[in-house]
Write a structure and sequence with these properties.
The protein contains four helices and six strands; from the N terminus they run H-E-H-E-H-E-E-E-H-E. The chain is of the alpha+beta class.
């Protein structure tokens, strides 16, 4: 998705929660999954708090900017990447709904996504 949407003005950043995670573990994950976008470890939980992230993975698409205040109603999309994992412990052979892709396609063509919020499926981040 990054290759397709970066030229259209969409920036990607991977945020790793502060759960016991070393810089080396992040580097290994980035290498193993050939991640090419920037990544950070949210060691002080500031990003998680700022965006209200509750699950891993959870995607948030904003209109940009790096201001201190974030209006959660201004999110263009938030939730799951797709529906390959309909619930924890359950996996489809492939996704049937591509929520993030659909949202990015709408956003980059000047439309509001039909679905702006989905429920992510993953590990719950403890407060």
């Amino acid at each position: 998705m990054r290759a397709r949407y970066s030229p259209l003005g969409i920036d990607f950043i991977g945020v790793y929660p502060e759960v016991p995670l070393s810089t080396q573990e992040v580097a290994d994950h980035v290498r193993d999954f050939a991640i090419t976008y920037p990544t950070v470890i949210d060691s002080d939980r500031s990003l998680r708090k700022r965006f209200g992230v509750r699950f891993v993975p959870e995607v948030i698409v904003t209109a940009g900017g790096h201001g201190a205040a974030v209006d959660q109603s201004a999110f263009l999309y938030r939730g799951r990447i797709d529906d390959q994992y309909p619930e924890r412990g359950s996996r489809r052979p492939s996704a049937t709904e591509h929520d993030l892709e659909n949202a990015l396609q709408a956003i980059t063509t000047g439309r509001v996504p039909n679905v702006r919020v989905t429920t992510p499926v993953g590990c719950v981040l403890e407060p």
